[in-house]
Specification:
It is a single chain. This protein has helices at about 10-25, 60-70, 95-105, 125-130, 140-145, 150, 185-195, 205-210, 265-270, 285-290, and strands at about 35-40, 45-50, 80-85, 110-115, 135, 160-165, 170, 200-205, 230-235, 255-260, 275-280, 300-305, 310-315, 330-335, 340-345. It is an alpha/beta fold and about 350 residues long. The chain has two domains: about 5-150, Cytidine Deaminase, domain 2, CATH 3.40.140.10; about 160-345, 3-Layer(aba) Sandwich (Dihydrofolate Reductase, subunit A). The strands form three sheets. An eight-stranded mixed sheet has the order 10-9-8-11-6-12-15-14. Strands 2-1-3-4-5 form a five-stranded mixed sheet, with helices on both faces. It has a two-stranded antiparallel ribbon with strand order 7-13. Helix 3 runs parallel beside helix 4. The longest helix has 14 residues, at about 10-25. It binds NADP nicotinamide-adenine-dinucleotide phosphate. NADP nicotinamide-adenine-dinucleotide phosphate binds near residues 163, 210 and 289.
């Protein structure tokens, strides 16, 4: 455990207790709930009690330590609670730990990682409001490492939006035909990207219009070794015989449909399934919704030297009425792929109207 500036505001006894709490946390199972450890210290720095979270539905680490202290008839009044995760502030299957610490008369709380769970967060604030000294973010890198898998579920996946378009920004002709706008090399590249993501997302409009299989294929047409999960967003039913439902023999490559129109919520579901990198392959309605919501980290535009005049435009309404409201992106890379050009763009975070 290395010391940081934040760690200067805690005592050596508290840092040692936090180190011990990290060890205790590892006694708990890895799973739906975080691994958490807690140590209660007397004002003298003596250890009063220890606890850890033994899994979903069992007492949290702080509650376990308070129970041990009570059983040993050790006074907790004026004690310091040292915990690996910010004490929770919600009543779930177990009572709120912030309240339990307040009721026990704890004077000070030292913790490592803030609780990112929107349902449970706010414990530090509640403790402070009750007049308790709170120091958070201590030895945070160790704490985050311990909770890496659990924390990942609260961070949205990296989102790439892919669009294959003509020079005049059309993704389908007036009659709905769109195969193929780009040439072989561009499609090989797009399949490489598919093989590198955890999931491919399309809207129901694309499923119903194109019936894509959304598999990652090698240049010889065979399936790549690792397949992305196939995700359809929208409330209309994906037909029972749709290609996207077809099981393939490679790992990954399952199919799910999410009917929520809330894209943030959909990404939370995907994060919860362990997806860190996802590829949105359209169509224009869904891609535009992601862009409008500021949920896109990377745009892959495959530009084919074709003109269609009419047809379906790549990006529709972004809620922009005037040039001053334009989203600002920067070109991160360009690549010639046969007759086509790949442009990779990322949000320009320096500009006032960049997405996010
Ligand atoms: N060239 C390319 O790169 C490319 C790629 C893909 C598609 N295409 C073409 O694009 C056309 C289909 O595109 P499309 O725009 O009609 O359909 P789409 O974007 O694939 O799907 C639109 C549907 O997505 C669902 N959806 C889920 N969350 C949404 C949200 N937050 N906002 C908006 N929609 C949400 C809705 O489904 P529900 O109405 O069911 O709720 C909506 O109707 C086809 O012609 C296809 O060939 C071209």
């Amino acid at each position: 455990m290395s010391r940081t500036d934040r760690d200067e505001s805690v005592t050596a006894a508290e840092l040692a207790a936090l180190n011990r709490a990290f060890e205790l946390a590892r006694h708990g199972p890895v799973g739906e709930n975080p691994q958490v450890g807690a140590v209660l210290l007397a004002p003298s720095g003596e250890v009063l009690a220890e606890g850890w979270h033994a899994g979903a539905g069992t007492p949290h680490a702080e509650a376990a330590a308070l129970t041990v202290a009570a059983g040993a008839r050790r006074a907790v009044l004026g004690a310091t609670a040292v915990v690996t995760l910010e004490p929770c502030n919600h009543i779930g299957r177990t009572p709120s730990c912030a309240k339990a610490l307040i009721d026990a008369g704890v004077r000070r709380v030292v913790y490592s990682v803030s609780d990112p769970n929107p349902v449970a967060a706010g414990g530090a604030e509640r403790l402070r409001a009750a007049g308790i000294e709170v120091v958070g973010g201590v030895a945070e890198s160790t704490g985050r490492e311990l909770l890496a898998d659990w924390l990942a579920a609260f961070t949205r996946p990296y989102v790439i939006v892919k669009i294959a378009q003509t020079l005049d920004a059309k993704v389908a002709a007036a009659d709905g035909t769109s195969r193929w706008i780009t040439g072989d090399q561009a499609r090989v590249h797009a399949h490489q990207v598919r093989a590198e993501v955890d999931a491919i997302i399309v809207g129901t409009g694309t499923v119903l219009a194109d019936d894509p299989s959304l598999t990652a294929r090698l240049p010889d047409g065979s399936l790549a070794e690792q397949q992305p999960e196939r995700i359809v967003l929208g409330s209309r039913e994906t037909p029972p015989g749709a290609a996207v439902r077809r099981v393939n023999e490679m790992p990954g490559g399952g199919f799910i449909q999410l009917s929520t129109p809330d894209l943030g919520q959909a990404l939370d579901v995907l994060a919860g399934r362990g997806h860190r990198r996802v590829l949105v392959e359209g169509g224009p309605t869904l891609a535009s919704a992601f862009l409008r919501a500021g949920l896109v980290d990377e745009l892959h535009l495959y530009l084919a030297p074709l003109l269609l005049g009419g047809g379906t435009t790549a990006v529709t309404d972004l809620g922009i009425a005037t040039l001053a409201q334009a989203q600002h992106w920067q070109i991160a890379a360009t690549q010639r792929l046969g007759e086509d050009l790949l442009v990779i763009a990322k949000p320009n975070k320096e500009m006032p109207c960049s997405p996010e």
